[in-house]
Amino acid sequence: MDNTLITILLAAGILLVIAVLMALILGWANIAFHVPTDPKITAVTEILPGANCGGCGFVGCAEYAEAVVKGKAPATLCGPGGQDTANKIAETLGLSLGETWPFKAVVHCAATREQRLKQTPYYGEQTCAAANLVPGIQGCVYGCLGYGDCQDVCEYGAIDMVDGLAVIDVDKCTGCRACEKACPRGIITMIPFKTEEVLVVTCSNKDKGVLVKDVCTVGCIGCSACTKPSDGLIEMINDLPVVNYDKDSSGIDLHKSVEKCPRESLVFIGLHKDKKKPKGEPERIEANFATTIDQTEWRG
Questions:
Q1: I want to staple 103 with a disulfide (CB 3.0 to 4.6 A). Which of 60, 64, 186, 190 is the partner?
Q2: Any idea what the Cα angle at residue 152 is, between residues 151 and 158, rounded to 5°?
Q3: Where are the domains of the chain?
C-alpha cells in the first residue's frame, strides 16, 4: 500500500478516535455538571417577549426571569411586554399585582432648530454623542442636539426627528429605555402614565432667565408663573419647574399653569383618547438633566 494513503488513513483514524473521545467526555460533563433549571424560570422566560432590551435593568430576559422567580425583582419591569406580560407572570407564579402603570419616554426640550440661538455650523460625525463633545455647537448645553441617536436605537418606531427635535409617540413607546440611555444630554426620561395626560416640563436649562433668553426662544426663564395656580403641585428647583404628583390634584386645573407659561415650557403629553384611561395620578417626575459635558474631563 502506498505510504501516502497509509498516512491519510492513519490521520483519519486518529481524528475519528479523538472525536469519539471528545463526544464521550462532553456527554459525561453534561451529566456530571448539569445544573437543574427551575421550571418556573423557564416558564417566565417563555412569557417574556425576548427583546433583551435591558430596560428592566437586567442583561436580558432570562436574567430578569430568574430575578422575578427568586423574588429579587417585581413582575412589572418589562416595558415591551407591558401589563399583559406582567399579568401572565403573576398568574404563573401566583403573585398578587398591585396597580401598575405604563412607563413612557418624554423629551425635556421643545426647541426646534429655528428656536435655538447661537448655533455653530457642525461638520463632524452626525451623532448626538459626537456633537455633544464639541463646545459651543449650540448656545444651550442642555437642549436636544437633533442628530437622532434616540431615533436610531428605538426598535419600535416611536421617535421621529421633527425640525431637529426628537418627538416621541407615547402610544408606540414600550418603555424599553433605549432612547434614555442613548441621549448624551440626559433629557429623555421615563415617567409613569397614570393618567391619560401627564404634565411635562419641556426644558432642561438650569441657567438664569436672562441667559436662557440668549440661547433659546422657548426655554424656561424661571419666572415661577406656573406655580401660582398649581396650589403647590409645581415648585421651582434650580430655576426649573418640577411637577409633584404625590400631592392630590383634585379640583386643580393644571391647564391654567400651562396657560400662564410665557415660554411654552409646560405641555400635556397624553395617550390617545380612544385608549382606556388609567386611574390615579403619576408620582413625582424629576428629570435627570446631567449632560456628558458635565462628565467630560478636558485636557489642554
A1: 190
A2: 35
A3: 39-93, 103-295
Question: Hey, which residues does 188 pair with through a beta bridge?
Answer: 107
First to last CA, the chain: 76
Q: How far is CA 78 from the centre of its chain?
A: 12
CATH numeric code, 39-93: 1.10.15.40
What's the CA gap between 52 and 68, in Å, rounded? 15
Task: Take residue 61 and report the three cell numbers written for it.
Answer: 430576559
Which three cell numbers, joined as nine digits, stand for 73? 425583582
| CA atoms in the 13 A half-sphere facing the CB of 110 | 15
pLDDT in tens, 34-68: 666 788 999 999 999 988 888 888 888 999 999 99
Q: Which three cell numbers stand for residue 152?
A: 436610531
d(CA 254, CA 67): 40
